[in-house]
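User: Some background: our group keeps a shared notebook of sequences we're curious about, and every so often someone picks one and asks for a predicted structure to add to the entry. Today it's my turn. The entry only has the sequence so far, pasted here. Could you supply the structure so I can complete it?
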Amino acid sequence: MKIDELICSFPKELKELLEGCRYEENKVGCSDTMVYKVIGKDGKDNRYLKVSSNKFENFNYEVDLLNWINGKLPVPRVLYHGHSGEYEFFLMSEICGKDSSVIDENTDKVKVAKALARGLRVIHSVPIKHCDFDQSLETKLKIAEYNVENHLVDEEDIKSSDPNITPEKILKELQYNRPNSEDSVLTHGDYCLPNIILDKDYNISGFIDWGRGGVSDRHQDIGIGCRSIKKNLGEEMVPVFLEEYGLDKIDYSKIDYYILLDELF
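Assistant: Of course. Here's the predicted structure to add to the notebook entry:
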């Protein structure tokens, strides 16, 4: 849908908030959610707008989690959340900087990998005593099972690495090889490079896209982080990331497990 058509569906309050703004569609990522960069009248005060129809994800969980995290971590502020007809709208503030997947010949990949590790340690250090956002393995496996049963897994994507694999086979393997324990921390849930914003000096500006965040095993983030670093920075940067993160002992079996689990999301 074109943005001009979508604007006609905006609730009154959202129209007033965004009057006179321009829109740039953000096509990074694989979600069916529509994402727009909203550019303010003077080119400043930029924001981001997520739009979903009823058949796709809803934003209630992410909105509530961001409100809980705000003040604990550098994350977007929730500016508006509401519905109109078949659409749900979620407006948030912009985290200034560039996402860490933007690589060119001048990028210091070692500094990026180390910044990602330091950022992850910051997330994992947030106290979880009063955090009610459950992303435990029990919960994630139930969601994975639902996704498989309802044909919500991108089979073409998972078959790109193994033409004989199926979502059902992955789910059985995950259930059979389930880890015996969880090292629970606050996790981002999708700790890949496009979701980590850096400033020009390779410092963390903030973390975006928290729809799968919550209390989970730290290897959820470490696994997705390793996979994303390998893809964007090169495999040789993975040890740099892990060393900077500072685990006394690296559980590669858990890293592989959570990477495989992510195939069903």
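Suggested note for the entry: The chain has two domains: 3-93, 98-264. Strands lie at 22-25, 34-39, 47-53, 78-84, 87-93, 98-99, 184-187, 196-198, 204-207, 214-217.
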